[in-house]
Each structure stands twice: as structure tokens, then as C-alpha cells.
Amino acid sequence: MNNNILVTGATGFIGSSLVKKLAETDDKIFILVRKSSDLTSLTDILHKVHLVYGDITDRSSLDSAMQGIDFVYHSAGLTYMGDKKNALLYKINVDGTRNILQASAIAGVKRVVHVSSITAVGIAFNKKPVDESVIWNFDTISLEYARTKHLSEMEVAEAVKKGLDCVIVNPAFVFGAGDINFNAGRIIKDIYNKRLPFYPLGGICVVDVEIVSEAIISAMKKGKTGERYILGGENVSYKQLADTISRITGAPRVHFPLPFWTAKILKSALDLYKNKNRISKLFNMSMFRVASHFLYFDSSKAIRDLNLRYESHEHSIRNAYEWYRERNMLN
Length: 331
Known about the structure:
Blueprint: E1 4-8, H1 13-22, E2 28-33, E3 50-53, H2 62-65, E4 71-74, H3 86-107, E5 111-115, H4 144-161, E6 166-171, E7 173-175, H5 186-192, E8 198-199, E9 203-208, H6 209-222, E10 228-231, E11 234-237, H7 238-249, E12 256-257, H8 260-270, H9 285-291, H10 300-306, H11 313-326
Parallel strand pairs: 1-2, 1-4, 2-3, 4-5, 5-6, 6-10, 7-9, 8-12
Antiparallel strand pairs: 9-11
């Protein structure tokens, strides 16, 4: 029997990869978009999906969008590492999630997969990879994005208590083909263009977008109600990551480590520097503070329950770089 599936955030990096995979099935795929949405990332498959107009921040627009829908993938969200968009982060990530959950419950949706973030899980303060059971500790570095992703999971827990079948997935740092807005891919572009002369002292968990979208579909089929699943891969320091990017792209190696306290002084000096475009946009204090910690994760639960695949971080970096290079997007 064919199902009616609704995807939010379908034009984003993870969302577009997910929709492409879903469009290969016999199910009827609906994507929630605004009239102003940029559909570039879905150009190849627009003929295979149905556009439904609505906005997750507009509760009343969701009831008609949910009519006849069996399953919902909620991957819409605002990713922003700074403190200038706090109200918008809350409106989209928390209120928007609550709106989707309420509309799903009223429409009789069978299951919702909520695409969260590893910032809603926590930090590996001793470099030992953390799993889903860790108590959320991101509040120690005061990042509003992380707080809103944590609160959105609280909304999911509340909806589950009220009887809605939901599963949470927490993708790590996602690289790969299709990252048109340079989310994680910004670091590849900036090292390639010699705009990142130093590396932070922390580390991240790298995973390929193809693996993430496969696992999200698997979570819909096999995930346990109310559970969360970390979708990660290899844990690498920023030094290792920078070395890999340099090796794959042929860019000069990044030689200088930059501790957070030094970064603060350097940032003050750079703010006076007229030619700011020569320095990476990644160099803002919120982002650099996060990058000075170890976001190392243990994905064994998703490997066990969702058949999460594993690839080396090098594989994902190469996939992303080749995709950018073919499209002349790195200059």
C-alpha cells in the first residue's frame, strides 16, 4: 500500500537528500514549502513530488497541508551559530516543531520523525564519545541554537506523552554532495581558498549526507517511539579534518592551532581590519567557542537499531569536494 508522506525542510541540505531518496519509492511525496522557497536543490525531482504551501511558524497553514498524510519527516529548522537571531531561532525551532506535532496529532498522522541535532545531545568534555543517554550540557557554552534544538526535543517528548508516535534523529556534522549553502562545507571552501590560516582545538563527528538520509528513512520504519538516535561517523579533531581537506583539495596545510582565549584577542584586532573578506566567515566567537570543544559521539545505537552505515570522514570530504568542483562552486 502506498503512503502519503510529508517532508518539511525539503529544500535544505539534509531535507533535499531525504526527498530524493523518498522520491525513488512508490509513496506519494509532499513537500511543505513557502511561496518564497528556493527549490534549486530539488530541480531534478520536482516532477516526482507534490508541493504543499504552508509555513511551520504559521499554525493555521498546517492543517490543510496535513490532510490525508500518513507519515511526516520534520527536517525544517534554522541553523545559526550566533546571538543575533535568538527570537527567530525560537520561533522556527521550538514553536515550529510544536506546530508540526500538534497538526500531525489532529490529522491522525501515524508517525513523525523529528530531525534534531547533536547540539541537543551534548559535549564530550573528556573527549570520550557521548551517547544518547548523556544529560544535556550544551548550556555551559550558551548557544541559543543548541538551546532551541534541546527545547524542540522537549516538545517531542510532550507530544509522545499525549499519544503521538515520534522518533528523534540527531545528525552529527554532515558533509557531502548537495550542500549548496555551504553548511559544514564552508570549511572545505575556506581551506581551499586559504581563508582559514588556523584551526580550533576541538573536534567533531563527521557523517555523510547519504548515510544520514538513509538512516532517517530507517528511523521511520524501525525506530522506537520516543527514542533518539545519534547519526554520526568518525570522530576527528579539527587538525585532522583540516589536514584531510588540504590533502584532498591540494590546498596548503593549516599549521596554526588557535586556543579560544587567543581567538578572542585576535577577533578584536580583525574587527578593525578593513579587508575582512580574506578571513573565513566561520571565525565568529559563538562558532569558535563550540569548535574549541569536542563534539565526539557514539552512534552504536543507530548502527544496531537502524543499520546506520559507516564511512571514513575522508570519504565524505571527498564526496563534497568533487561535487563542488564539478559545479565550479569553490571560487
